[in-house]
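Morning F.,

Quick status update on the modeling queue. The single chain you submitted on Monday has been processed. Sequence for confirmation:
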Amino acid sequence: MAKCEVCGKGAHFGCNVSHSHRRTNHMWKSNIKRVTCNVNGTHQKMYVCTSCLRSGKVERA
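Structure tokens below.
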């Protein structure tokens, strides 16, 4: 579910590195919102990241 339907941005994986250089696994989730959009003249609910909303790639209904 945590994936943008416009650009495909999803979760990122990596390691948290402490001051003593101990590494633990970590997952960063994208800022995904469920919004109502105009798709081919109809209203449709989609999961869209906020960077796509701000850049105008999606027309909100």
